[in-house]
Amino acid sequence: MASAPPPSAAALYRPNHFVSLPAELDPDTYDTSPEKRRAEAERLAIRSQLKRQYLLQLNNPSPPAVIEDPALIRWAYAKSQNVYPTFRPTPKTSFLGAAYALGPLLFWIAVLKAHRDYKEKRIQEGKSKRPFSVFF
């Protein structure tokens, strides 16, 4: 004969004696299905267990060198290591990449060329003298 499945985290969760049940879990504040309420209670139970585990590590009298927060590790991985599954090369991203790479370079080439042409024109008109310079 099979035994009953273990109770879920939502069934084991009890509100703190010093803090009332959150309004999100109070069935009188909204009219939703019992499955949704059970899922929210289960998520809250998991969050509270993770928070308790983190606070126990944080307030440990002989703490480890690094306190690992699993949520922070997941976030850092998603931001840094997991770039390519969410990036798709399209004509727009290719154009923007080329514009950001070549745009400033072409801009400064145009500015320096225009400045050099302006100086050369003033020298040829006799309004300015050509300074002796080895580098420019």
Automatic annotation (TrEMBL):
The chain crosses the membrane at residues 94-112. The lineage of its organism: Eukaryota, Metazoa, Chordata, Craniata, Vertebrata. Accessory subunit of the mitochondrial membrane respiratory chain NADH dehydrogenase (Complex I), that is believed not to be involved in catalysis. Complex I functions in the transfer of electrons from NADH to the respiratory chain. The immediate electron acceptor for the enzyme is believed to be ubiquinone. Complex I is composed of 45 different subunits. It is a single-pass membrane protein. One of its GO terms (cellular component) is mitochondrial inner membrane. Pfam families: NDUF_B4. InterPro entries: NADH_UbQ_OxRdtase_NDUFB4_su. Belongs to the complex I NDUFB4 subunit family. It is found in: Mitochondrion inner membrane. This is NADH dehydrogenase [ubiquinone] 1 beta subcomplex subunit 4. The keyword Transmembrane helix applies. It comes from the Eukaryota. Keywords: Electron transport, Membrane, Mitochondrion, Mitochondrion inner membrane, Respiratory chain, Transmembrane, Transmembrane helix, Transport. It comes from Erithacus rubecula. Its main location: mitochondrion.
